[in-house]
Write a structure and sequence with these properties.
By secondary structure, the chain is α/β, with parallel strands linked by helices. It has 33 helices and 20 strands. The strands form five sheets. Strands 14-13-15-12-16-17-11-20 form an eight-stranded mixed beta sheet. The protein is globular, with a radius of gyration of 29 Å.
């Protein structure tokens, strides 16, 4: 092994200069709160515990000094910066127990989290603490925690709207629309209003995209026009129609007593601002407020917290890690945690920096990544482990196939010391796991897929495979139905009728694939005429690869009209074509892809029993947040993929990409492998530099693993990042 480093010159985001006033404000807020940092003074901690005699839980023994400081700081406004693996949930659990042991009525405690599971886990652990340590004669027992108000922001606000409906003047029997319901409602309104959506060749956005636009606009307080122009430029021509649809959607909900997820929080915020009685009731009721994952809050959620916690008498503790603010695409506002000192000038800062997850060698790399984040609270994670561990390893491979083989080889090599469930492959986007999934299938490595949809289940891949299936079996009615519904004006009923007629005609022609029906339809439909010509050419192709090429010539123009993100989807076709090269017949090609996993999230070759959890995890980084594994692989580390090329011109987006990489690396407990192909080529461009997130770090933070061939090449050249 050898380590070879050099400096690549990467373009800095164009808007960095424009960001300076905002960055200056954030920097000042951080410095102000850093000045209010309180450290774990043993004398102070002893005094706190001694002043509360009769405590049943030995907090000093079960918490480290900074955790103890956070758990016993119960007054005022406090921000707890909890580094990765620092025991955040444990700290919140013991703080809950400490409050109750010190006489705080449980009904005065409000615990807000981002998942119901997180809230239940904290309450359950606290209940166990109290139940195990308190006798039957105590005035406190585990059941007391049932009176704590806990849950997600949405569940809390839903409860308030129903409980105080009379005071707020609303109908308590309103219906909640989940995301899918909202999408269907938007689709229904669009069809009823008959908007002019076909004014250009650019496809009108689907209901899922529209719902996301409406939600993001509200949560980030961005006008729909501005949001579309910056993030969805391909559909900008439809802005007037989309703006009107948003208005009609809102009016439709109000007229029918419907609330979507965004309404639930925004309505409570509105009433808190304008209804003095309602606001004072909540401020008097909830005297101790705790918020988990504060870096993930959006603007309405912050407003909710600020309105309830405005009085000095209300204790507020928010816990989070600014290095892990990675959900801007969901509307999260990273500024909330950085501006906490501006919102609450008298607030205190506590830091949890002892890491219980990673080895010192891995932590050293994670700290180096943290130092590259432009703005944030100073933090230096440390481990109490006596074993240093092994440095992270970086390896570049000639292409994505070799990268996947390397990952599989390493898993097999390390397998004697680990179970499959101890490994995770983390990807920036779901399509970057395509080659890994295929390689694992080939090598009989069991795995589960978390985040995104499995490669062969993606809509555009299933569409292309439907064409292939028809070439192999013209009587495949399912494939025919899928293809026919791609055409404008062909719904499910019409597609069924056409499929039955085509199937009958094919039977008459003994599957020779010279159906008389298609030419007759072609007289009325140029699309069907083109389809018939495409299938004829594809059937005459000399290789499976050429079959795919012929199909894509027809399908990609169709995809452009039905999916606004067709370029991103098209990147998956490289994998499909490369896989086709490896097969000499359609039946073998289809057989290799015709896997039947036990459920939608599990893909295995040998299909183990449902209770067999010993599988490698393949996950998007976003879906891996909060989890950990002994061995972690982070792949596709080419600049343009990680960070994503769309983020390179925007300072804030690039910073979030850097934090996303930080989250990925901080999932590793003992081994961290970073891999990259030598290049990546797609509709978006050609990328061949290693990720700046790796190249910008000092050479001693990881080991670059090289092959013999690359070493021989490097010996005759100047040192470079290869």
């Amino acid at each position: 092994m050898t380590t070879i480093f050099a400096t690549h010159h990467y373009n800095y985001p164009h808007n960095f200069v424009d960001m300076k006033p905002k960055l200056s404000r954030l920097e000042q807020a951080i410095k102000k709160l850093e000045a209010n940092l309180i450290n774990a003074n043993s004398e102070i901690l002893e005094q706190r515990l001694a002043s509360h005699l009769g405590l049943q839980v030995d907090y000093a023994r079960e918490l480290n000094p900074n955790q103890l400081l956070a758990a016993t700081t119960t007054e005022g406004k406090v921000l707890v910066i909890a580094g990765a693996g620092s025991g955040k949930t444990k700290t919140l659990t013991y703080r809950t127990s400490y409050l109750i042991e010190n006489g705080v009525p449980p009904k005065e405690i409000l615990l807000l989290t981002f998942t119901r599971r997180a809230a239940n886990e904290i309450k359950s652990r606290a209940r166990t603490l109290l139940a195990n340590r308190l006798d039957d004669n105590s005035h406190i027992n585990g059941k007391a925690l049932n009176d704590i108000t806990s849950g997600t922001f949405h569940s809390f606000c839903n409860m308030l709207l129903r409980q105080y409906s009379g005071l707020l003047g609303i109908n308590p029997r309103f219906t909640i629309l989940d995301t899918a319901d909202s999408e269907d409602a938007i689709d229904l309104i669009s069809k009823e209003k008959k908007y002019p959506t076909k004014i250009t060749n650019q496809a009108f956005p689907r209901k899922k995209t529209l719902q996301n636009i409406f939600s993001t606009s509200r949560n980030r307080r961005i006008h729909i026009r501005d949001l579309i122009e910056s993030s969805y430029p391909d559909i900008a021509v439809h802005i007037p129609v989309i703006e009107q649809l948003a208005v009609d959607f809102h009016e439709y909900k109000r007229a029918n007593h419907l609330y979507d997820f965004d309404d639930i929080i925004s309505q409570v915020v509105r009433h808190l601002k304008h209804n003095d009685i309602f606001r004072k009731l909540l401020q008097q009721h909830y005297r101790y407020v705790m918020v988990d994952e504060y870096q993930d809050t959006n603007i309405p959620q912050k407003e909710l917290i600020d309105l309830i916690c405005a009085p000095v008498s209300v204790s507020l503790m928010v816990v989070g890690d600014d290095n892990q603010s990675i959900y801007a695409f969901r509307g999260a506002n990273y500024e909330n945690i950085l501006l906490f000192g501006e919102s609450y000038p008298e607030a205190k800062l506590i830091k949890l920096e002892q890491n219980y997850r990673s080895t010192p060698a891995v932590l050293d790399y994670i700290n180096a990544l943290s130092a590259q984040i432009t703005l944030g609270y100073q933090k230096q994670l440390y481990s109490g482990a006596s074993i240093e561990g092994i440095k992270p390893i970086f390896r570049r491979l000639s292409d994505e196939t070799k990268e996947a083989k390397y990952i599989a080889d390493k898993i097999i090599e390390l397998k004697p010391d680990y179970d499959y469930q101890d490994f995770a492959v983390l990807c920036r986007t779901s399509f970057q796991s395509n080659y890994v999934q295929l390689e694992f299938m080939e090598r009989n490595i069991p795995f589960i897929v978390v985040g995104g949809i499995r490669f062969i289940e993606r809509r555009h891949i299933k569409d292309v495979l439907a064409f292939v299936k028809i070439l192999y079996n013209p009587n495949d009615t399912i494939a025919w139905h899928r293809i026919l519904t791609l055409f404008k004006g062909v719904g499910a009923v019409t597609a069924t009728r056409l499929t039955q007629a085509i199937n009958t005609d094919n039977n008459v022609n003994n599957n020779t694939f010279e159906p008389l029906l298609l030419p007759s339809f072609a007289k009325k439909s140029p699309q069907l005429k083109s389809l018939h010509a495409t299938l004829t050419k594809a059937r005459q192709a000399e290789s499976v690869e050429m079959v795919i090429e012929r199909i894509l010539e027809f399908y990609i123009p169709v995809l452009k009209t039905i999916e606004e993100n067709w370029r991103e989807r098209s990147e998956d076709f490289r994998v499909l074509k490369n896989l086709a090269i490896e097969h000499d017949s359609l039946d073998k090609f289809l057989e290799n892809l015709a896997l039947d996993p036990p459920n939608d999230s599990v893909a295995t070759m040998d299909k183990p029993e449902d209770d067999d959890k010993d599988k490698v995890t393949i996950s998007t980084i976003h879906s891996a947040k909060g989890l950990e594994w002994p061995v972690v692989f982070v792949n596709s580390l080419v600049d343009g993929m990680t960070p994503h090329y769309r983020s390179l011109s925007d300072f804030e987006e690039l910073e979030e990409e850097r934090k996303l990489f930080y989250v990925a690396c901080s999932r590793a407990k003992s081994r961290l492998f970073l891999t990259a192909p030598e290049y990546f080529s797609s509709y978006s461009g050609y990328f061949d530099k290693p990720s700046r997130f790796i190249a910008e770090l000092p050479a001693d933070k990881l080991t670059v693993e090289t092959s013999k061939r690359l070493l021989e090449t490097l010996a005759s050249e100047d040192p470079i990042w290869w």
